[in-house]
Amino acid sequence: MVDPSWYLTLAALLFVIGMAGVMTRRNALIMFMSIELMLNAVNLTFVAGGIGYANPEGQLAVFFVLVVAAAEVVVGLAIVVSVFRRRRSVNVDDLSELKG
Amino acid sequence: MTDYVWLIIALPLLGAVVLHLVGSRLKEPLAGYIASVMSIGAFGVAVAAAIPVFKGDIGEAEIIHLWDWMPSLGASFTIQWDPLSIAMALLVTGVGSLIHVYSIGYMHGDERFSRYFTYLNFFAASMLILVLAGNFAMVFLGWELVGLSSYLLIGFWFTHDLPPAAAKKAFVLNRVGDFGFLIALMLIFKHFGTFDFGVVLNNPAAQIAGGTATAIGLLLLLGATGKSAQMPLFVWLPDAMAGPTPASALIHAATMVTAGVYMVARTAPIFDLSTTALTTVALVGVVTAFIAATIAVVQNDIKKVLAYSTISQLGYMFIGVGSAAYSAGIFHLVTHAFFKALLFLGAGSVIHSMGGEQDMRKMGGLFKKMKVTGWTMAVATLAIAGIPPLAGFWSKDEILAAAFARGGVYQAIWALGLVTALLTAFYMTRWFFMVFLGEPNWDEGIEPHESPQSMSVPLVILAVLAAVGGLMNTPFFTGFSNFLHPVFAAVHEQHAPDGTLEYLLLAISIVVAVAGVAAGWLFYRGSAEARAHLLERYALRMNFFENGWNINSGYERFVVKPLGTLAEGAAEFDNKVIDSAVNGVASVVGWTGAKLQLVQTGFVRSYGVGILSGTIGLVVWILMSRGR
Amino acid sequence: MQELLFAMGAAGAVAGALTLILSRHPVYSALGMLGTLFSLGMLYVTLLAHFVAGVQIVVYAGAIMTMFLFVIMYVGIDETLDTKESLRFQRIGALAVIGGSVGVGLLLATSKLFDWTPGVTVEAPLPSAELLGEAGTVESIGRVLFGTQRVPGNLDSFEPSGWLLPFEVTSILLIVAAVGAVALAMGRPKRRGSDNG
Known about the structure:
The structure holds three protein chains of three kinds.
Chain A: H1 4-24, H2 28-52, H3 57-87
Chain B: H1 6-22, H2 28-54, E1 62-70, E2 75-81, H3 83-106, H4 113-132, H5 136-154, H6 162-192, H7 197-200, H8 210-227, H9 236-239, H10 245-254, H11 259-266, H12 268-271, H13 275-297, H14 302-322, H15 326-353, H16 371-385, H17 391-406, H18 409-436, H19 453-468, H20 479-488, H21 499-524, H22 528-537, H23 539-546, H24 551-597, H25 604-627
Antiparallel strand pairs in B: 1-2
Chain C: H1 2-22, H2 26-46, H3 50-75, H4 90-110, H5 129-135, H6 138-146, E1 148-151, E2 154-160, H7 164-186
Antiparallel strand pairs in C: 1-2
Helix pairs in contact in C: 1-2, 2-3
């Protein structure tokens, strides 16, 4: 396998792309998927780091991250669906009533 | 029996508390009865507890310790039961009880009837704390409390303009005196380490030198001038006449104003060490006596004459104690209480029957309408003028004789005191003539009548006392001085001379008194027109006296106005500077809040930017701190 | 060979990610996401983390992306990306954050500003591939989760682990999430004279 540092770099790159997506896009679903992308980058970091330190607990962490991500997606999509039902829009900029 | 002396203070205090709590719900005379019963009860206890001392069973003073207050300062609630405090206590409770009974009739119909009696009882308790105290701290406590009671009673009819202002004036001037008193107390504590009388007054020469004694004495004198209305702090007493007349009788004639004299007598061992202080006391006394007498000559208000007369007679008492004739001073205190209270109550009787009129020019010829009052007032006038064998003669003469015997500057004091005695006889005769004799001059609709029994009986009792009370201390029978002797045994007390000199001085006093009365009779026996004619001839000088030697206006210009300006300046400063600083803080907070509000855009994505940038910063910080 | 696999996986992941954030159609974004997930799975295999790779495909690509696609279909697939940014400082803020993070990353990688305790040094090289591969199997992960685990570097030791409780808690978490989703999506009880929407 390749030197784990490369994997870490790739993970960092994916993370940054995910951040850009979160900050730039207005569609709630795409923002959500960008967050999932960031989580995946973290997973990759864990696994690569685990290998790099010869510690199987890295993969264990991925396990938990995966479970939590799944739960989060479930609830988050339910919220998006409820909001869509109310307002017929998935544009997060429309949800700005907490202004001020 | 002396174990129960604390009842003397406790009974009036209990009365005050009870009346304070439930007084407003009591029907009218009941509050007066309660207060009078408490006062009479205190008098009874005082008499009973004094009997052992009268019989001579107790030589030294008896100290009754009640409970600890500030033990480290030597200040506890202790009662010192010796002849001096017995005399004062009997006076306060005795004359006080008569005034309580009198007030039931006088205050009839007043809407705050029970509150008046609350204050009266409270005053009695405070004054008793003062005179029965066994240490300086307790004296000061009583001192302040009587000041408070005086304030409450002067300003009793607070819905009018004058009483509250007069009450404030009294309190403020008292305060100026108390400043001196406090510093004296501090000096005492510094040198003696305690406030207890037993320690401080027992051979103070061992602890302090003459200079310190002078300082303490002068500062105590300052306190006394405030409380006893001497120069230069006497201006509150005439204004205090805005209070109810029985209150004036009790507080501003018989008891509170005598606290200063009592205090000088009590601290005689300290004054004994400083002739400077004693002389100052006597000088203050004689100057005050003279000035007040001149002002009294031209007053037209029935109570103001008596007020200035009180100031003048207090000056005599100060001459007495200032000549180291302590017993004489206290003796005059007692006799003065008799006839001055009598005079005030009589004036109250007149005012009551004249429907509130106080201007003497609108009176006259009341003798026919108010026999009892008239006769008792006649006795009182002769007593204060110093006609023997009535009370005032003996006490005044003893003071003047002692002053003469002391020699030096005291003989000038004696001379001025004689002149003042002449003036006293004159203006009191004038007072009596203008009110009771001559042609009636009152307004339409006023029907003078004799007062109810609750008012006239105390008058009679006091008249008897004024008539014969002086006989307890004549040159032929020094009963009172002997009674007080144990108190002043350790100091160098000045006595009146014996033998021919004494009789000569006696004769001079009698001549002066008679001359004064005669002059008054000459000037005022005639009709109002004759009076006016005579007054015109002396009008120029009268104005100066009428304005109280311009002392009041002097205070107004040099003290009150500058202080007022200073106060206004401070208020302006507070408004402009401090308030704007506080408001400035508030507006800064508001401005900051408005700026911070811009962070709350309401958009998730901008929040996302914020969160992510914070996270980056946090990561950097963690890495950097762990790295090192 | 390894490098080639890595390059392919990396390229796929990045391409998928860029498609995700730059596409105008949400379905294309979802497909990009899928690509990324598959590429990552492949990368996990190259890292000898077989269990994780499998779970990734089954759970992430299989279940989560499916849910995403469901919802995308539900809300409508004709959304377009508006190039006009509505928030004033958003672009600038985004650029600042990205630039900052890239800068930090470069600093981390190249400079000596941050101290590292490297696991891989010349003195302590990685264990052999078989051992590492063995660490990535289901059995090994099971051991770590439920019972004993090997101490890193010492392949003969066994130590009890503390991962059992979090494991059970995650199962509760999943139940809670499911119940919550149902409650959220069910909407309000029907009322007479219902309001908008």
